[in-house]
Amino acid sequence: MKLSFLIGLLCLSFSAFAEDTLTVVAVGEADTEKEKIYFETALKKSSLNADEEAKLELVREILKSDFDFYRSKYEIQDNKSGQTKYLAEVRVEGDKSFQLRVKVENLKDKKSLLDKKIAVDFKNIRATAHEVSDQIYQSLTGQKSIFKTQIYFVSDRTSRGNDIRKELYVMDFDGANQKRLTYFNSILISPSLSTDNNRVVYTLIEDKTKPTGRGDGSFHNVKNLNLHMMDLTTKKSRLVSNIDGINSGAVFSKSGDSLYLTLSYQKNADIYQLNLSNGHKKKITSHYSDDVDPHINSDGSLMTFLSGRAGKAMIYTLDPKGREKNVKRISFVGRFNAAPRFNPDGTEIVFSSWVDDRFDIYRIGSNGENLVRLTKNFGSNEEPWFSPDGQFIVFTSQRVITRKRATQDVYIMDRDGEIIRKITSDYGKIFSPRWSNL
Questions:
Q1: Banded pLDDT at 209 (limits 50, 70, 90)
Q2: pLDDT over 70 (residue 21)
Q3: Taking residues 70-81, what's their average pLDDT?
Q4: To the nearest whole number, what is the mean pLDDT of the chain?
Q5: 375-381 long-range contacts, Cβ below 8 Å, gap at least 24?
Q6: Mind spelling out the 3-state secondary structure of the chain?
C-alpha cells in the first residue's frame, strides 16, 4: 500500500509525535578483498549478419553490467593479469543455429568450474545474456543470482492532469524491458507476488454502491479498496475481496493457498489470514489501534507489521499462528515508520522511517537488535524490498526538482547501503517496487 496512505490511516488521530533517542549502528561493514574476474569474449563469426553481431556485442556489455551489481565481491578486470582468479570465456559457435559456449576456470587452483553451451535467442538477446551471467555466477558461488529476476512496480505515468492513474508494470531487475500489465485507468496500489511468481495481488480503489441510509431507498457511490489477483500467465484478473472498507496490503503465504492482509470491515483496521479456496478469514491482530501492512517470513513463523498501538506508527512482530500471539515492538526510531519487509531468511527487516523531515531506510534484526541506517542525504527514500538472494534492496527515492515538481524513481543498493544503480528514469512517479522470487 502506498506509504502516505498507510501513515495517514495509522496517524490520522495523532496530533503530535515525540522523538525517540536511539543509538544507530554506522552504515557499512569492513572492506573485504575482492576476487578478480576477467571476461574473455569471442562473439564474431563470418556466418553472422550485422544485426546478429551487434546483438552479440550487447552480451559482452550485459555481462559486465550484471557482475557490477556484485561489486562488493568481484572486481572486473580490463585485462587478464597474474592477479586474475577467475577467467570466464564466452565464444559463439555454430553456423545456422548459434550457441554461446561458456567456460569458467579458477586460474589459481587450475580448476575448470563450467563448460556449457547456451542457445542464442536473437529475439531476446538480453535474456540470453542474463542466462550466461547467471551460469557464470552459479559456477563461482553455487547459488543463483538476481540476473534473471524481475521487479514489479506501480507508476502514475498514464495520469492526465488531476486525473491520477496508477497501473502495474514489470521490468527486468536492471530496469530494462519495462512492460505495462494493467489497463484499469484507475488507482492501483500494494502489489505482491506469490512465491512461485505466477500470481500477483493488488488493490484497486473502486466505486461501490451503498444505501444512503436516508430511509428512502436511495443509493450512492463510495470509494472502496478492493483486492484483486492476476494470473501472470494468462494476464486475467479476478476479484478476491471487496468487503466494505480496506482490503489491502496483501501478501501470499509460502504455500500460496492463503493471503495475509488488512481488512477494516469491523471499523478498525486489523490483519487477517484469508483462505483463497473457501474465503475463511482468521483474525491475526485484535487491538483498538490500526494494524496494517503485514509481511511474513519464509517459514511462516513470524510476521512483521505496522501498528499505531504505541501512539505512532511503529514496527512490530508477532507469531501469526495465533491472535495477538507474542506481539513485540521492534522499532523506536523516527517520528513514524512504514513498510516493514523481511529478508529471504527472515533474520532481518528493512523499513522506512520519517527522520529529519524525510523518509530514510533502516535495517534491523527481526529480534529488534542491530539497527542500521542505510540511507542519508539522498532524497526521501521509501518502500524497501529485499532481493531474493538477500544481498540487495530495491527502493523508491524522491527528488524535489522545483516547488511544483518532483521525480520518484527506483534505485538498488546493497544490503549495507551502497547505492548500486538508478534503474528507472522518465517513467512517471514510481511506487511499491516488488522483487520477484528465485
A1: confident
A2: no
A3: 95
A4: 91
A5: 375/413, 375/417, 376/27, 378/419, 381/352, 381/411
A6: CCHHHHHHHHHCCCCCCCCCCCCCECCCCCCCCCEEEEEEEECCCCCCCHHHHHHHHHHHHHHHHHHHCCCCCEEEECCCCCCCCEEEEEEEECCCCCEEEEEEEECCCCEEEEEEEEECCHHHHHHHHHHHHHHHHHHHHCCCCCCCCEEEEEECCCCECCECCEEEEEEECCCCCCEECCCCCCEEEEEEECCCCCEEEEEEEEEEEEECCCCCCCEEEEEEEEEEEEECCCCCEEEEECCCCEEEEEEECCCCCEEEEEEEEECEEEEEEEECCCCCEEECCCCCCCEEEEEECCCCCCEEEEECCCCCCEEEEEECCCCCEEEEECCCCCCCEEEEEECCCCCEEEEEEEECCEEEEEEEECCCCCCEECCCCCCEEEEEEECCCCCEEEEEEEEEEECCEEEEEEEEEECCCCEEEECCCCCCCEEEEEECCC
φ and ψ at residue 170, rounded to 5 degrees: -140, 150
Which of 2-11, 108-117, 208-217 is predicted least confidently? Answer: 2-11
Instruction: Tell me which residue has cell 520518484.
Output: 408
The domain 3-28+149-435 is placed in CATH, from the list 3.30.70.2690, 1.20.1640.10, 3.40.190.10, 2.120.10.30, at 2.120.10.30
Query: Over 70: is that where the pLDDT of 12 sits?
Result: no
Give me the amino acid identity at 405.
Answer: R
Is residue 429 scored above 80 in pLDDT? yes
Residue corresponding to grid cell 572486473:
76
User: Which of 80-84, 244-248, 405-409 shows the lowest per-residue confidence on average (mean pLDDT)?
Assistant: 405-409
pLDDT band with cut points at 50, 70 and 90 for residue 11: very low
Give CA–CA dist 96/307, Å, rounded.
61
**Domain layout of the chain by residue ranges:** 3-28+149-435, 35-141
* Number of CB atoms found within 10 A of residue 89's CB: 17
Reported confidence tier of residue 56, pLDDT bands at 50, 70, 90: very high
CATH fit for domain 35-141, picks 3.10.20.810, 1.20.1250.20, 3.40.50.10070, 3.30.565.10: 3.40.50.10070
Query: What's the pLDDT at 219?
Result: 75
Domain 3-28+149-435 identical in fold to domain 35-141:
no
pTM: 0.91
